[in-house]
Amino acid sequence: MKFLCSWSGGKDSCYALYKAQQLGYTPTVLLNVMNEHGDRSRSHGIPKEILMAQAEAIGIPIHFFNSTWADYEVNYIKHLKDLVKTYSVSHAVFGDIDIASHRAWEEKVSHAASIEAILPLWQGDRKALVLAMIKDGVEAMIVSCNQTLGPDFLGRTIDSKLLEELEAIGVDACGENGEYHTLVVNAPFFKNRLNIQMVGKATSSNYNFAELQLE
Asked: Where is the Diphthamide synthase domain (predicted)?
């Protein structure tokens, strides 16, 4: 049961891949959507070279395509179909937890490519999932966040102390509502830890982004 993983580079897609492996599925290729310029990921603002380093640490290829938000779905289905043919995958793994509209979209695009959507984290308790990720060895740092958190949270590693801080200011522990996004630098199935440095900070569209460098 070979699968492609919708890969943001963050903790949820990473943990979904890990849990899918534990269920007996075989990861075959990662799929990431870049912005229209092709230099950063559409969702998390992660540089391409860092996403490629993650794929190398996992030991499977990563497929990129550039897209605006307006053309996102059409392009996603097209590339999904191409990957199904190239890698003979039967499933697509996604890291969403409990937002029904996200699941409906993922099932829609998977159906269009004649494969099945798998959501290993679905309906899990948000905080419990993050604590389980930490316990299982997923190391992730905040690389973008809203103004409720502010730029001082950029570059911080997700741990139990940070979760307490997030809850104290009314931010969801998992960031499932878009409060923050992460970059995974190590996981149980990585061959090596990534050495990532934050070399600056930027603000765009009222959202804060870490400027990252792969050492």
From this structure: 1-212
Residue 178 is predicted with a pLDDT of 86
Dist CA 43 CA 60 (whole Å): 21
Where in the sequence is the domain holding 166, given as residue range(s)? 126-214
Grouping H, G, I as helix, E, B as strand and the rest as coil, residue 176 is coil
Predicted TM-score (pTM) above 0.70:
yes
Residues 18 and 110 in one domain: yes
pLDDT of res. 44: 87
Main-chain dihedrals φ then ψ at residue 32, nearest 5 degrees = -130, 140
pLDDT confidence tier of residue 126, bands split at 50, 70 and 90? very high
Structure tokens at 132: 């389980």
- Say how far apart CA 98 and CA 25 lie, in whole Å: 22
d(CA 97, CA 86): 29
